[in-house]
Each structure stands twice: as structure tokens, then as C-alpha cells.
Amino acid sequence: MAVVTGVVQAVKDGKRLQVNGDWYGSFNPVGNVNAGDNVTFNWEPDKTGKYRNIKGAVNVVAGASNPVSSGGGVVATGGRDLIIVRQNALAHATALVVASGVSDVWSSQSLVLRLAEGFTKYSATGEIEEDSPIHEEDGF
Prior knowledge:
By secondary structure, the protein is an alpha+beta fold. It has two helices and five strands, in the order βββββαα. It has two domains: 63 residues, CATH 2.40.50.140; 68 residues, no CATH class. The longest helix has 21 residues.
């Protein structure tokens, strides 16, 4: 299963969303999601690989009428929005560390947290940290 985060470009029949140029579908209504909303959700391809099926709920991180920073990131000041951004950042940071070949994720916990912190900051402000959280002592 993969995670997608982005701005909804179009909604069709309450069950299909276009996000980041790709279409995703659900067998159930996706809820109160509108074009311009910043969303995050899990998805996986169908058996043929042709369709992208939404798995679980579509979480609206920020609606079209909600404030967005000048960098294009979501302004997550707390509460549910911040929780969603942090969960998403942790998931992607963990996947990145695992994909990089680290076999013992527990010993890489500080690396995952530093990466997630950078992802969260980028999501909230659109700013990229100049110093990479990956250092030689991490074995890379």
C-alpha cells in the first residue's frame, strides 16, 4: 500500500479523485472532498495494475478555503491537521530509510525522526532544510 498526498484537481461522481495528475477511485463515496483540497490517503493498484484503488478514508489536510503558506505547504498549527501531517511524514521517512537498505529500523529511529521532522517542516512551510539529516555516522 502506498500513500499519496496532494491537491485534488478534480472529483467525479463522489468516488474518483484526480491528485497530482493521477486518478484514484473508491467503491464507496470519498466524503466531503472538493477540488482544491489538500488530501492524504492510502491506495494500492488493482490486480491488473490499471486502476489505483483508495484504501480507507481520504483525509482532508487543508481545504481550498483554508490558509496555505506562500511556499505551497499546509499551515498545520495543531490538532488533527498536524497529526495527519506528522503521520504522513513518519510513514514516508520510514519507507525512505527501509528503501535505502537499512535492515534494522529500530537502530535508525533517530534518522527516521529527523527525516520526518524535515518532511513536516516542508509540508508546513514549503522550506527545505539546507543540512541533510543523513550523516556519515548513520552509515550512508
